[in-house]
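Good morning,

Both structures are done.
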Amino acid sequence: MSFNFIKKSVGIALSLALTCSILSSCKPDKKILTDPKNPVTITVWHYYNGALKNAFDSMIKEFNETIGMKEGIIVEGVSHGDIDELEDSVTGALTQEVGYEDLPNIFASYADLAYTADQKNVLIDLNKYFSEDELSKFIPSYVEEGKISNDGSLKILPIAKSTEVFMINKTDWEPFAEAENLTYDDLKTKEGLVEVAEKYYNWTDSLTPDIANDGKAFYGRDALANLFIVGSKQLGNEIFSVENGEVHLNLDKDIIRKIWDNYYVPYVKGYFYSNGRYRSDDAKVGDIIALIGSTASVAYFPTAVTVNDETHDIESDILTVPVFGDGETVNVQQGAGMVVTKSTDEEEFASVEFLKWFTDTQQNIQFSAASGYLPVVAEANDINVYMNECKELGIDLNDMTHNTLVKAFEEVNTGEMYTYKAFANGSDARDILSHNLADKAVADRKAFIADLESGATFEDTCKNFFTDEKFERWFEKFKSQLEDVISQGN
């Protein structure tokens, strides 16, 4: 919190200066630039909706009635529905298109959008308002992600983050695991996951011996781009490396082949699956019993599964995300932060005061508990601190959320968190990673099923689909698409 020092006399000023010189570490606090008698209003654009929007609105109200009232700051939050709509609004404001509003004082932003805005020179350097001590309270990698330019300036303040966890329907896993003599240890690697998924397909197929090839998929994942980005990093390769503002594409064919073999091949065989918008949707109808998704999506993992109009309750478990067997433990770091746009000194100051309050430990945990995101303050990434604060706030976390936090905090505190640096056309490049192989897998799965229905054996169909030549053709097209997008940005 800032304090308003009024110099009543030269003697006091000289005394303060002398004291500071003696103590060495003393710094005069920034002057408050706002006036409670003439409050300044700042606007925040975000993409929160539903319960998350309610939580954010509640915190804005709390700020306005406490710190804001004392310092003369009024915060107004505006939801733009979802991240795509928010990005459209920001882009329209940046290009000053007719019908779009002017930029707000603060808006939620992923690195790619912030990079685009920064190229327009509309974002402030948050280092101007945050001391090293204030920034040191954050998880270091979260702050580093916000340094999207080459000059060390900080453009994105982390407010909430997420990583990935492995969610499993424990109730439907147990009879399968007992029949096949499996444990969760068999799911520690991506290769092990594929082997388990194959066993699950064969086991469920065996339950209906009169129907051939009707085995069920075991697993699905959200955000396939993360498999490419983090999977490559686990194996020692960074797909996108940014140096002096220029991005370099580093596609290791052997690593990409490993991703192909451990996602595309089991998907086409029917061991993996995707149909709904998110894999939790597929889990709700029993199409899969395990998935990888964001920690923020855990609340959507079902507590009951409905298959053929029959519903049964389930228990669930949270596991760590499988890594490649010969790779290092690297976890994805994701989640939008907040950027502050250039305006008057008063509005910039007011914007930063709100963000400082919002990312203080108590508020950070309060928002995290309501949203499902991880706190960004290092102190809050301790399960004991987190739970004690929740108790003080009267927040009751269910077992699934608690277990998610335990796994996520373990990943944040002991493993490497990774996200690539922002670059021009980064969103387009990520879209290719997200959809290129995923779309091909869906299309080829349909073709695979058609071959089986025409009378081909499972083994012969596999021989036709999974050839080196098919991988090579796909890889060259995949690489070419990425190269085109990156060259346009560079």
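Second structure follows.
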Amino acid sequence: MIFSAIFIITDGIFVGKGIGSDALAAVNITAPLFLINTGVALMFGIGASVVASIHLSQGKVKVARINITQAVVVSSLLLIAYAAVILCNVEKIALLLGSSPRLLPLATEYMHWFVPFLVFSALLSSGMFFVRLDGSPNYAMVCNIIPALLNIGLDYLFIFVFKWGMFGAALATSLGYIVGALMILIYLMQPHRVLHLCKVKLSSKSLRLTLRNTGYMCKLGLSSFLCEAAIATMMFTGNYVFIHYLGEDGVAAYSIACYFFPIIFMVYNAIAQSAQPIISYNFGAGQPDRVRKALHLAIRTALICGISFFIITFLCRQNIVSLFIDRSCPAFDIAVNGIPYFGVGFIFFAANMIGIGYYQSIRRGQRATIITLLRGVVFMLIGFFVLPLVLGVPGIWLAVSLAELLTTLYIIGIYFKDRFMVHRL
């Protein structure tokens, strides 16, 4: 997960240092498109891996192979269509995402060379689940490491040596994803693997089964899609509000916080995923004390990480910002002054990720979905549109933190309400 975050952050550092703060803002404008793409990939990847693992445990190997093949084919077709729609309306979509006339040429240039290759990014994200399920977690990790290292080298070559600007930044990222996706495909096309791709039948019965199976996969993986969509909403709404109050420099400053955010998300997600099987197993075994013990351990671990991240962000904010842009840029001071407000949310975000993972683990998927929507949409919109009116510029930075705080209070409320109802019964 850390290497996945490095893949994203590397682009920001090279774009900010090699092209400028406007380019950094332009990339941030287009980021929601990538997050939606990743959300679709994770939805199919997680959903298909759950279904395939159940079939494997029952000895239905052929059915498991069909499941992952259906996921790869259907998600790829959907995302090719998604990319085609974007490419036919590049300028309109860039403006819809909040681009100003000044950022529009940079945003459209980046989209022209990045969007066509989104399907490879998705194949890498979803294929990792299938490779791990097949018993090759080390190969899955290598499929992330090699593209990340390739991206770093090509970013430096294309931006600093060849001076290709936004075209170079987009091409470096795209080539990294293509290599990672090809590594996944090479693995899944080897017949001696337990899980490998198989021939797709085009009969009407097979198509109906494919639609039914992929629909079930999407249902299982919906919460993962919503998590990515929530981050996309944060970036989309933030771009609009920042450009309204602080112009393009404000968006550039905000983009630095958005690039730093994936590392935090990856760590909390790793903790939640680690706790999930432990909680699920003991919940199924009727061991509520063990469930609570595992939950409390996960919360303590996440909170320690959250407090540490906030302290590091506060003390090292100038160093963090200087990784992306020069001190001479107007966006530098905006970011340095604002990021500590943004960092307060890291503490509450830790508890929220564990809460969402907990309700998924005890088969309360609907509640996990409600929490995700409250955190990523309802509370986020309230923060972005109300706090700036009350607190000014600091209110914009505090919007995400407020959303995380309100979500934490909601989770605490429903958790103790459930405990109270159990004791009454």
